[in-house]
Specification:
single chain, alpha+beta, Beta-Lactamase, Helix Hairpins, Heat Shock Protein 90, 3 domains, 9 helices, 12 strands
Length: 454
């Protein structure tokens, strides 16, 4: 079975639809107009014939009809015909022997209108009036030649020509207007075809005005700017990652080469320990890179309803370290999120506090600004104000961090902030009277969850 092909061009489709719609409307209006004009012309002709017939029927009843009957255009055909069908009186244009019509009005309806066609190309519009209701009454006929507008198809030809002309104008106008509207779209398509991954600096021309096409071009340019920034970030990330990976790989290679080429001059156990440290560093970087990639991807798991106070309290009690930790957590603060990801954030913050704290770590959970604020404070050296944002960048490690944890990946705080943002929250290093103070803020569930298990 063949499928009828449709125009692929939007311009052609819209033009075709507009033309078909115009033809449908114009044909309907043309038909109505044609019928109305025909009816009006015929009605006017019959009214004129009735006026003349009424005039001479009154004269016939008084036996005062002249011979011949005077007639004036357009009603030139007048006859008085008796009950036997004989022409009694007539006008010059009418026959003196042949009646204009063999039909006679009935006694109960003395006025009748007839259309008689003596020949195929000649018709008369007649008004017949019976003089008296009696059966033997004569009939007066008055008529005129059928107007040319009714006798020919000139009116239909004119309507058809007008329909075709107007439909053509509508189609041409639609084609031009749609083409003008789509011209910026073609320019956008041409520009987009020039964009490549290696060159995202190309921007789409924005047409004048504030219509949908202009908004599309503006949005596309904004998306291209974001994409260009993202690609640049990926390039910088790849450079930074390769640099960070090169350091432990170079160290591992140096230790292995020393053990291989100078077996008698190196301590084997010490070399293996150093190689393991470099290996741990590589493993930590690769693991955190994998986690960071998963966080950047869409999380298709359904979020859990989590009591933040309960989660934080359980995690603090599960952590072990040389520095004691205290926790003060409000209950009944419910959020939507991933339990495992939030545990990762808490573990990072608590492990960071354990490395830098001198004697104590305090963890609090309280409600603030429509969310749950989780604060982890220690009494260590703290974070300088100039570095409080920089520490959340990938691979950034301050001198204290490198000294206290040589095998770290430099991803811990970056991953923690990404998790916070994925939960529509924030993570920042806040002011503190002494030591470091990290605040994780997560939005609370808006609906009433008095009975969360329900």
């Amino acid at each position: 079975m063949s499928v009828r092909s449709r125009p692929h061009s939007i311009q052609a489709r819209y033009t075709l639809v507009a033309a078909l719609f115009a033809i449908t409307v114009l044909v309907t209006l043309g038909t109505i107009t044609d019928l109305a004009i025909r009816y009006q012309v015929a009605s006017n002709a019959f009214d004129e014939a009735e006026r003349v017939a009424s005039q001479w029927s009154a004269a016939a009843r008084n036996d005062s009809v002249p011979r011949p009957i005077p007639a004036a255009a357009p009603v030139e055909f007048i006859q008085v015909v008796d009950v036997h069908g004989r022409v009694v009186e007539s006008s010059k244009a009418a026959s003196e022997t042949v009646p204009l019509s063999l039909r006679r009005p009935p006694p109960d309806d003395r006025f009748q209108q007839y259309t008689e066609c003596p020949s195929p190309d000649h018709c008369l519009l007649l008004q017949a009036i019976r003089l008296f209701p009696a059966q033997d009454a004569s009939v007066v006929y008055a008529g005129l030649a059928e107007p040319a507008l009714l006798a020919t198809h000139r009116l239909e030809y004119a309507v058809a020509a007008g329909t075709i002309l107007i439909a053509g104008v509508v189609g041409w106008t639609t084609w031009m207007q749609v083409g003008r509207t789509l011209r910026p779209v073609k320019a956008i398509s041409t520009k987009i075809s020039q964009i490549t991954v290696s060159d995202l600096s190309v921007r789409i021309p924005v047409p004048p005005g504030d219509d949908e096409v202009a908004q599309l071009a503006t949005t596309a340019n904004e998306t291209l700017s974001q994409l260009e920034g993202a690609v640049e970030q990926l390039r910088q990330f790849a450079l930074t990652t390769s640099h960070e990976l090169r350091t432990p790989i170079a160290g591992l290679r140096a230790h292995l080469e020393e053990a291989l080429f100078y077996p008698d001059d190196v301590d084997t156990q010490e070399t293996i320990r150093a190689a393991l440290v470099s290996t741990d560093r590589l493993d930590a970087i690769v693991t955190d890179l994998s986690l960071l990639a998963r966080l950047r991807a869409e999380d298709r798991q359904l979020p859990e309803r989590i009591d933040v106070g309960e989660l934080v309290t359980a995690e603090v009690h599960a952590q072990s370290g040389p520095v004691p930790m205290s926790v003060t957590a409000a209950s009944g603060l419910w959020i939507h999120g991933s339990r495992m990801q939030l545990i990762r954030v808490l573990a990072n913050l608590l492990a960071n506090a354990q490395r830098h704290a001198a004697s104590s770590i305090e963890v609090t959970v309280e409600e603030t600004d429509g969310g749950a604020a989780i604060t982890v404070s220690d009494d260590g050296n703290g974070v300088p104000p100039a570095d409080r944002e920089r520490i959340f960048e990938r691979f950034v490690r301050l001198d204290d961090s490198r000294r206290l944890d040589a095998g770290g990946s430099g991803f811990g705080l970056a991953i923690s902030r990404d998790i916070a943002q994925a939960h529509h929250g924030t993570l920042k290093a806040a002011d503190s009277s002494g030591g470091a103070r990290f605040v994780l803020w997560l939005p609370l569930i808006k609906e009433d969850l008095t009975h969360p298990e329900a």
